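I'll show an entry:

:::
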Amino acid sequence: MRFERALAIHEKTFGPEHPDVAAVLINVGGVLADLGRYEEARVRLERALTVLEKALGPQHPVLSIPLTLLGRALTGLGRYEEAQRRLDRALVLQQQPEEHAGLMEPLTALGLLQLARGRPAAAVPLLERALRLAPEEAATETRFVLARALWESKQDRPRALELAARARSDWQRRGNAPRLAEVSQWLASRR
């Protein structure tokens, strides 16, 4: 993996505790989580979090990035309580007096966690909020997760199909073959 090579170069150049190393660890962790390699992702994301906490302090909003990805990896591992703690912390770090797009990722990850726990109705308000805050170009994942939550909770199945179809169109336009296949399969099994 090219990220692993970049990580080695950054560690040699800056030292293992540098924030730039943490940025590469976050990227590596995110890719590994997307590949379903959750334990490997967890290890890198925990390390990135430790480096950034030392460099920036425990309350810096940028910590929400590794915390959110870590929450997703822990959800993939079935470690729901740990995932909840990480995602709640990410959300707190992103809280400001007003709603903003930075809340989208932690809210979407919390929605995924609720789905994994078999609580789709609890996921819906989190995902609705995330979708309201999401910039248009970043809303695709949230749309598909909300579609799944709406479908599984039997709240608004026509809207669920509409949201999933829109996600499919977005991923098709972007050439994201794995996600396109996933959403297409989901839609085919529900029509």
